Amino acid sequence: MSETIDLDPHAGPVVDPVVTDVYEVRPSANAGAISLRKTYTTRWTDAVIATAALLCTGTGGAWDGAICTCEDSTREFVAGAGGCIAVPGASESGCDASGGVWTDDDATAIGSYCVCGIGRYDDAAGRCADI
Question: How crowded is residue 58: how many other Cβ atoms within 10 Å of its Cβ?
């Protein structure tokens, strides 16, 4: 899921949910994995169980058994985003000016307060940029 963001000159930002991808899921022949196939394709891919330790060390972090320390202060550990990721910028005016929606108190999955919508991300300057 993602969202599209349109600007209504009278009502402000209008956010509509959008389904971005749909997958078929089935048990895998590999223990501890599932197989995924994106709709309208024929290729199956196995997805294995990822641990916090694996995500941390696989993205350059150091795992101490409970906490991941990323290699520098410009990155932070977000398991749902795949491990150590670049810290998004925090700029309400930059977010709004680039067509994003500032959430004020509801952080996104990567700790940002700027929702950029489908095909875009919150860059280091706090503006929505194309992926």
Answer: 14
